[in-house]
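Target protein
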Amino acid sequence: MKRLAILLALACLLLSGCATQQPEEYKIAQGTEWENTVRVLRGKEDGAAVYVIGGVHGDETAGWTAANRVKDWDVKAGTVYILSPANVYGAEHDQRETRSKRDLNRNFPGDPEGWDAERIAASIYADIADKRPAIVLDLHETRGAARPERDDLSNSIILYDVAPVADLVWGLLEDSASGALGDVPLTLLGSPPEGSVNRTVSEELKIPVITVETWRGEELGTRVERQLDIVDYVLRHYALR
């Protein structure tokens, strides 16, 4: 039986339909200390482009874990670009900031000649500007009740301008409230901070951005699934899945 399995595997590799395909990827900030990889999912049909970013804050584990799982999804149409984790050093060291202790999400649109957070931000901003997606999904987490001095962002979506994607946003809110999406109602918040990918891309590139926030007080698996539910909902809204 073992020999038969090996022979079947070899036969499969000889057939073009069975050959393992390498994932489509490209580099940003190539050749620098901040080089990163964007995974590309392409459907067989024409469709919209969606850009997914996870781990702008390195210690927000559910965001970049969810985005990493999206890298293995199939799409039937359009294109999905996935950058995760965006803050590689932060994710590797369970640290919010970059190596130089700077907040990547306060340094957009960045500066190619600046400190590390500015250079990373500049490479991400330039790639989004080049790809011109219909929407950007920015996956984050919050400490919520553990930081009472700050607003509770738990299980929320944040937009600078709702108008361009109003039907999508109201669908997310209504379906989460009814239980058709996920297991908790989502809250809609505005006013993303200056220098964030959300505010900068929305303001300067006129591309809508939805920032997703889950609460780190809950189990990691629960948080990841909530992130994935929202990503899947958005991709289905644009008929990519």
